[in-house]
Amino acid sequence: MQDLPRWNLQSIYPSLSSPEYTAARADYQNRLTALEAYFDQHDIRRLTTETSSAASQLGSELVEIMGQLQELSLQGETLGAYLYGLITTDSFDAAAAKENSQLEILGTRRQKLEVRLKGWLGSIAQRIPAILSSTPTLEPYRFFLEFNAAQSRYLMSEELESLAAELCLDAGTAFGRLQGNITSQLQVPWEENGQTRLLPIAQIHNFSFDPNPDIRRRAYQAEIAGWHSLRTTVAACLNGVKGTSITLARSRGRESPLTVALEQNRIDRDILEALLGAIDEALPMFRRYLLDKAKKLCHAGAMPWWDLFAPVGHAEQRFTWAEARAFIIEKFSVFSPELGEYARRAFDEQWIDAEPRLGKRGGAYCMPVPGVEESRILANYDGSFEQLMTLAHELGHGYHNECQKGLEMPRRGSPATLAETASIFCETLVATAALQTAPPGDQLAILETQLANAMQVCVDIRSRYLFETAIFERRASGELSPEEFCDLMRDAQARTYGEAVLPETYHQYMWLWKPHYYSHEEYFYNFPYAFGHLFGMGLYAYYQSAGETFIPQYRQLLRDTAQDWAGPLAGRFGINLADREFWRGSLAIIARLIEQYEKLSPT
Questions:
Q1: In this structure, is the dihedral angle defined by the CA atoms of residues 362, 307, 588 and 339, taken in order, positive or negative?
Q2: Whole-model pTM?
Q3: Which residues pair with 105 in a beta bridge?
């Protein structure tokens, strides 16, 4: 791929040394100091005795707090997005890394204020209805206020929460950053045309989609060897992150890290059990797909791991960057001209960084930049249909951000479960449209991409959930060795991929390079992907029956994802998330795709 774009961050700030960035950083620090002074003046913290202040007085204080918090969050999230954009595309950028470290220190001060606010809201929880009644301007913040008041019961003392915020910079956060840096900077030897050169590990990983089976096999072997060289360091990172998580959860009186994850994701255990139960029922279906794919690739039985993402069908199907742009905009526009125009802006205004290169993180993500009401999308594009689908997926996240433009910061965002709603919907939109007009050979390639993605977010995510569950159980008793992490990963893959993949080729280092394990604040960042995938497919099925009347409902859902629990939001469409039948319905869509896939020949 030639001339792949790098994103333009100058619409956010011209540079780290620019007056605009310097002024924004100073403004953030000044606003932080001002809010700290306001909290001290009005004793905004967990109260030891019931306050005698009138509801109207408390309402006035909350109006001031929410106004200041809005401006502080807007500035902080914009600064953070800009720096993250720099360091994830160039982990060698020492100036950006240093600045990000300093911003994180300011972030701990902000975190302390959020803890104090949460404690205060818990102290006045019984009076929130009266406060909202006396101060109607606070009504849009009802969910924010009530949710945080309820969460306050899990706070340690203010002193301990402050200490934890500071220590976590040198514990969980530092370990997560180290994992990201060393995995993004890893280069491994690659032999081509009789010559050996060093290639970034992200580029080696992309060879898993190559039509040449020898390249896929050698890339897998090179990747495993590369990750093996980092195993001791990254195992220390994972031990540090999970140890921090366990200590914090226990000290805050949580039943387990899983209960934290459920509340973070705004679902209850019944919903999770319905989701995972339906996936477990469907594992034989996914194994059937893998065994049929193995047959299409001329394997006698189970397939090796390195062929999980092998292209099937017309392997020559490639998309230049210009073709990818045109394809996505066209398919998005069929659903909604607004969605198509959003994609056009993202491509034309250089919101996408598509070029794989040394020092750049692997994978893909989308982040909001609220100060300029834009998004930025990181990709590692290689011209494959799979990568085109990844672009559609991340642009869906961007459209989700677009639907929240103009909202106050405390009302923006989404729990991880609902964060995948638009991305999966857009991915399904593009794949379904492509499938309808494609000749048989291309149909097989498109179905393969859809099914490989579905397998990842159902089968592989299920294995990651099992792996993380085992980590939390074992890590509570002491640190794990790299070999123990590998054993747990192989066991989780055996329980999910089963007989469809050759056991001796399981990817034992999946734990090492997946960034989702390396946050001490987000636990079980795995099942939300399965939730989002199947929920997005269920919504797409709803759209097919409802037609254009669905579009405004859908847009409103995306706007409201930070303002309610997942159950009531899904209830707007008559969906009961705790009913396994809903998840079975989404999995039935995948089953029909597998049936189509099995009928097609790769020749």
A1: positive
A2: 0.85
A3: none
